[in-house]
Design a protein that fits this description.
CATH superfamily: Endonuclease/exonuclease/phosphatase
Number of strands: 6
InterPro entries: Endo/exonu/phosph_ase_sf (IPR036691), Swc5/CFDP1/2 (IPR027124)
CATH architecture: 4-Layer Sandwich
Protein name: Endonuclease/exonuclease/phosphatase domain-containing protein
Largest sheet: 4 strands, mixed
CATH class: Alpha Beta
Helix content: 10-25%
Strand content: 35-45%
Distance between the termini: 42 Å
Shape: globular
Length: 101
């Protein structure tokens, strides 16, 4: 029996920068909300048993991109995280391109 997955994605199909989150069926039926911030950042809100979890997919600008692009990405990321209630569990997945802190 093959497992089935649903892809939630954001970004133009022809662009090199986009993000997505695969969710295994039937858990995909428990997605409560989707927020597509830009082609590098999105999240889904998922109910797992009695807990609500926010799962982020993030793709930070890589070396060689402009400082403005990097600053815009981190400002958007910070702004959206600050809106999530402390009672929510947050999981961040993606490629942060060596940016930590």
């Amino acid at each position: 029996d093959k497992e089935k997955y649903k892809l939630f994605r954001n970004g133009p199909k022809t662009a090199k920068n986009s993000v997505g989150i695969f969710v295994r069926e039937p858990l995909a039926q428990e997605v409560l909300d989707i927020k597509r911030i830009n082609s590098r950042l999105m999240w889904i809100k998922l109910r797992i048993e009695k807990q609500t979890m926010i799962i982020f997919s993030a793709y930070a600008p890589q070396t060689g991109e402009s400082e403005e692009m990097k600053n815009d990405f981190w400002a958007a990321f910070s702004d959206i995280i600050s809106t999530i209630p402390k009672s929510e569990t947050i999981l961040i997945r993606g490629d942060l391109n060596g940016h930590v802190g």
